[in-house]
Amino acid sequence: MPKVTLIKDGKVTTVEFEKGKLPYEHHGLPESFLDVAMNFNIPLEHACGGSCACTTCHLYIREGEENLSEPEDKELDRLDTAWDLRTNSRLGCQAVISGDVVVEFPMYTRNYVQEGGAIQLGKSDTRDEEKKTAEAQP
Ligand code: FES
User: Fold this and answer.
1) Using one digit for the tens of pLDDT, what is the confidence trace for 70-82?
2) Separation of first and last alpha carbons in the chain
3) Ligand 1 pocket: which of 33, 38, 46, 96 to mutate (most atoms within 8 A of CB)
4) Could you tell me which of 79, 87, 124, 80 has the C-alpha nearest to residue 106?
5) Are 44 and 33 in contact (CB under 8 A)?
6) 47 touches ligand 1 (CB under 6 Å)
7) Mutation to probe ligand 1, out of 36, 45, 52 (largest number of atoms < 8 A from CB)
8) Residue 3 belongs to what H/E stretch?
């Protein structure tokens, strides 16, 4: 049973699901982060409905990358437009989970449907805090 841990604003939520048992309701690919989140009522933005046409479901994989499907070209192309793209970035609607994983929500996501082009998901960017701490060191 894969264990999925989601970290948003420092708040940790962990759920487990049995492979092949989630009631799929077209939330991205079956058993993707978006599918799991929707099945457990965990908010995960998905402006395009999970069709790989936005980046609102952008997540950072902290642990368990080996337990995810390989990203396809369309996901990588879409990710190129994500806010603060990192080497561990994935789209929540495209990354299919096969084992334990830990993910973190980015501080912002780009949502071109909303006016302003971005919404804030978290309170702070941990990398900025690390930078400030490092600068404060003598
Ligand atoms: S919900 Fe739009 S790309 Fe994942």
Assistant:
1) 999 999 999 999 9
2) 47
3) 46
4) 124
5) yes
6) yes
7) 52
8) strand 3-8
- 59 C-beta closer than 6 A to ligand 1: no
pLDDT at position 17 is 96
What is the structure's pLDDT at 9?
87
- Residue 62 alpha carbon to ligand 1 centre in Å: 20
Residue 123: other Cβ atoms inside 10 A: 9
> Taking the model in full, what pTM does it have?
0.80
pLDDT band at residue 114 using 50, 70 and 90 as cut-offs: very low
Centre of ligand 1 to C-alpha 52, Å, is: 5
In this structure, what token pair is assigned to residue 11?
Answer: 């708040």
Structure tokens at 135: 């600068």
